[in-house]
């Protein structure tokens, strides 16, 4: 069954959109990522205009994050103090991202910038994740004992002024570090339609040194509020949010996030990371191919 999307200006298969939302929600619950790094490219592949894909996927990420956060709160997996600092930074970053988005729209370069940035981000992060996961799996097969990772924040963070105690995360660091990290994800959320979790989760582990027990839940907590703010910003400034598309994605993502949280408790983390890395790299390659081949329509027309 097909349905017409008023803002996107085309008809889509309802089942395909719901399944897409469900798959992204599954990733959200399993890895603590918003899922927008896959939602937006897949919507573009399907034929949705990039600006509409970015704005509408932010709405879908909000729904997936609500479901995921509820599951994590029940397990005690959210550091609310750390998450609140990241939310404050994320809201500031959202405002900066909105200015950047509008500037690129006026210059007529928004489609190219979105695709090129995705290729660079997904390619680099997917490669690092694949290397780390593969190294761990090979070491286990050789019978090597896994090294106990010492949770220590990056030396640069120790130079930042002021220090707070984040008891749930087991940290005593400057709040400026999570604030700046939240601001970065806010910019990414507005300008690219990503939740920022695929950047935030590794940064929380390797830069901040947070406890693994609260990384996923705290990431989803921050993503929830920042994507909600992003949705309002896009609705007011760009008018690119297609509510029909967002609702179809939300229907699937809410259920998928709950299932993902359950799977994450049963599957081995190194294999999950490897699977996610392969998905990320596949999307990066597909978008790179799209940049090198001439499209059927060179210019995109948007509603004034």
From TrEMBL:
Membrane-crossing residue ranges in chain numbering: 12-38, 44-71, 83-104, 116-139, 171-192, 204-228, 240-259, 271-293
Belongs to which family? Belongs to the 4-toluene sulfonate uptake permease (TSUP) (TC 2.A.102) family.
Q: What is this protein called?
A: Probable membrane transporter protein
Query: Could you tell me where this protein is found in the cell?
Result: Cell membrane; Membrane
Membrane topology per the entry is:
Multi-pass membrane protein
Q: Which Pfam family, just one, is annotated for this protein?
A: TauE
- Entries under InterPro entries matching the protein: TM_pro_TauE-like, TSUP/Inactive_protease-like
